[in-house]
Specification:
Blueprint lengths: L1 H15 L5 H9 L33 H9 L25 E8 L2 E7 L5 E4 L4 E2 L4 E6 L3 E9 L5 E9 L3
Antiparallel strand pairs: 1-2, 2-3, 4-5, 5-6, 6-7
């Protein structure tokens, strides 16, 4: 009896698959034909070429004497005054400061500066701001012009001009 049952189940299963999914079976059977894995060749290894660092003519940036020159400056007309008392806005970089307004009292024009710590400062021509010895040289309705003194690697002081635009 068991043998007859197994025979009936096997025949009914064979009858279910008589070509209904032949296209799917053909696709699965043929999908791997002609495919081969391709591995890219390794790049060519170039021989190591050492770099010779000839520093005979170059300035040593770690020389203690050079560091003292940078701290003190070489002198000249553009050297900042190291004894001048620092103003509050000199502790912030210029790119962190925002000009948010202008106030005019008589002939004097004041600019309102918002610092990164959200404190509002009132400045006028001659005040200092920024970390590069910046000094306000002109205030208009739309911007503040600042003259900064920066030191190059040779210890010389150079002047550069920056502006703060009014933020709308």
């Amino acid at each position: 009896m068991k043998g007859i049952m197994i025979m009936i189940v096997a025949l009914s299963l064979a009858a279910c698959g008589n070509g209904k999914f032949q296209d799917l079976q053909d696709f699965v059977k043929n999908s791997g034909n002609g495919l081969r894995g391709k591995v890219e060749p390794l790049p060519e290894v170039r021989p190591y070429e050492p770099f010779v660092y000839d520093d005979f003519d170059l300035t040593d940036p770690f020389n203690p004497k050079k560091m003292e020159m940078l701290k003190l400056g070489k002198g000249g007309a553009l050297q900042p005054d190291p004894n001048r008392r620092k103003e509050a806005l000199e502790s912030f970089p210029i790119d962190g400061l925002r000009m948010v307004g202008v106030i005019r009292q008589g002939d004097t024009i004041y600019a309102l500066i918002k610092a990164p710590d959200n404190t509002l400062y009132r400045v006028t021509k001659g005040n200092h701001l920024g970390q590069n010895f910046g000094k306000i040289v002109e205030i208009t309705e739309k911007e503040i012009k600042i003259r900064e003194l920066v030191q190059d690697t040779s210890g010389d002081w150079t002047e550069r001009t920056s502006t703060l635009q009014l933020v709308d």
